[in-house]
Amino acid sequence: MRRRHFLTLSATSLGGVLVYTLARKPIRVHAQDGQQTTLKLPLRFFTEAQALTVAAAAAQIFPSDDSGPGANEAGVVIYIDRQLAGPYGQDRFRYTSPPFAPGVPEQGYQGSESPAQLYREGLKQIRGLHLLGPSEQQATLTRIEHTPFFSLLRTHTIEGMFCDPMHGGNAGLIGWQLIGFPGPRMSYAGEIDKYYGREFRPEPLSLAQVLGRNAKPGEDAK
Hints:
Elements: E1 5-10, E2 17-20, E3 26-29, E4 38-43, H1 48-61, H2 71-74, H3 76-85, H4 115-125, H5 134-143, H6 148-162, H7 174-179, H8 189-192, H9 207-211
Antiparallel strand pairs: 1-4, 2-3
């Protein structure tokens, strides 16, 4: 039986609050000093060391900067952990029987290894990445940037930034705020007259907020 692993983070580093200025620049609002709490998040696929390594790699791919927060603030590593532990990670819904034919780039990954297997092997190449300085991290990732593992990691980082929060990423809807995406709203009929001739900048809403109830993500399907 696999020992349970957890990822321990500061609450202010994951899913804080973003507000927009009139110039449409997001500003991150941190908790006040002395009010920081620690989050202990259960991991389904990674060990804590692996999760920290993936978090460091994702932060290099999508770093926080003057325009707003990045992969770590959005909880990208939690998104990746959930996906790899679920049906997707085990290739439950992908055709994986030979013969295998070369694909075109538009078809995405066409290898025989499952995403989970790719990560298990790929993480061996960047073990301890979170213990290195920024320049060393960049150099390490540059060495593997043409591998299927890095390609998948980059794709997952982007997905984790902009997915619906029910999948574990886009904490606090910060990814959607960065690009001005309002979420899966069904209609704007109620706002047409109210905002006629005026700028309309709706606050992003997750699927759960739109539905008024929690939605079960595919990675939790049995």
